[in-house]
Amino acid sequence: MGDAAISLLVGLFLSTMSCPADALPSTCRPEYQKLSGGLVHTACKPPNNNCIFVSTGLNMAEKADVLKAHNDFRSRVAQGQLSGFPAATNMYRMKWDDNLAQVAQAFTNLCDDRHDKEVQRKTSKFPKVGQNIAWNYEPTQTEVIDSAGRVKDWFEEYQDFNSGNVDPFRVSHGRVVTHFTQVAWAETRYIGCGYTHYKLRNDDNPRFPYKKLFACNYAPGGNMIGKSMYKIGAACSACPTGTVCDKATALCYTPGESDGLDSSGGSTGSQWGIIAFFLLGIIAMAAVCIGIIYVRSVTLRSSYPTQQPCTS
Predict the structure, then answer these.
(1) SCP domain: which residues (predicted)?
(2) Number of other CB atoms surrounding residue 140 within 10 Å
(3) DSSP string, 69-101
(4) ∠202-203-204 over CA atoms, to 5°?
């Protein structure tokens, strides 16, 4: 089954499921339901009813492209090949994380190009998660995503970043550079991204009705003022404990670890596994809806007195 069919299934799942408002999305894990301060986790937010999906999700090849683009750019920094920047001693090789990707996808499916809060994108494994987002508006519908190109746009911000602010990390007032610094943050090891192509029912920009929203979530998150963007020194000379240096890229990795993607270039599991996941999600949502409706109907019936048959 092709990627287009999978995207259609995902879109149907996300846009057509409807039930009482207090039924939570299938992505809303129990640990996501415990945020303080009245905040709602991104994976627990209800659908945006103003959003009409054209397509959702990255296919297998696109996920691999995003991961490769990040590691290629990180390698340039680590090897000291970036003009004006010193080499890095401790740059991790990134790997894909499905849970980060699931939350990133939940974010883009909300059709809102404003960052969520750090705590709203946490996962079971990662309490501190960074985020980069990109979007564009188009007059006509096209299916070109160019996710690797988005990563390149983020990385190109290095031209506006003062390399003297690498260690300790600081940000000067001026042009945006924090997409680049997150891409090149040495201790960030995991990444997961989402993508949604959509229209809005009530759009204040009718000349450009088609929107594409791309987001990557990172763990551990970077851009921490006063910390180290990366350690300066001989390339790959101080890899974290338990990792070794890939001399070809100057990136640090754990021997024998996978990149989080299977041999077909996607996240672990076949396309049929993805389909099964969403079908199970639909079944679970249906069960929740039926349960809520049943409880409400029982409650409603119990609020009325039992009618007795008329006798003469």
Answers:
(1) 61-226
(2) 7
(3) HHHHHHHHHHTT-STT---BSSPBPPEE-HHHH
(4) 125
Residue 102: count other Cβ atoms within 10 Å of its Cβ: 20
| 299 membership: H or E segment, kind and range | helix 271-302
290: closest CA among 89, 18, 37?
18
- Name the strand (E) or helix (H) holding 163: none
**Which long-range CB contacts under 8 A does 136-140 form with residues at least 24 apart?**
136/211, 136/212, 137/205, 137/208, 137/210, 137/211, 138/208, 138/210, 138/211, 138/212, 139/207, 139/208, 139/209, 139/210, 140/210
Q: How many CB atoms lie within 10 A of CB 250?
A: 25
Output the pTM of the full model: 0.78
H helix or E strand, kind and range, residue 219: strand 210-219
Under the banding of pLDDT at 50, 70 and 90, the label for residue 283 is low
Domains of the chain, first to last = 3-302 (3.40.33.10)
All residues at 6 or more sequence positions from 237 whose CB lies less than 8 Å from its CB, including other chains:
89, 245
Nearest 5°: phi and psi at 207? -70, -25
Q: Which residue's structure tokens are 């759009």? A: 203
Q: Output the CA angle 206-211-65, nearest 5 degrees.
A: 160
Dihedral angle over CA of 180, 181, 187, 192, nearest 10: -40
pLDDT average, residue stretch 217-235: 98
Burial of 202 (0-12, 13-18, 19+ CB in 10 A): exposed
The answer to whether the beta carbons of residues 196 and 108 sit under 8 Å apart is yes
DSSP type of residue 265: S
Q: Indicate the burial class of 144 (C-beta count within 10 angstroms; 0-12, 13-18, 19 or more).
A: exposed
Question: Is 68 in contact with 223 (CB distance < 8 Å)?
Answer: no
Does the structure show a pLDDT above 70 at 249? Answer: yes
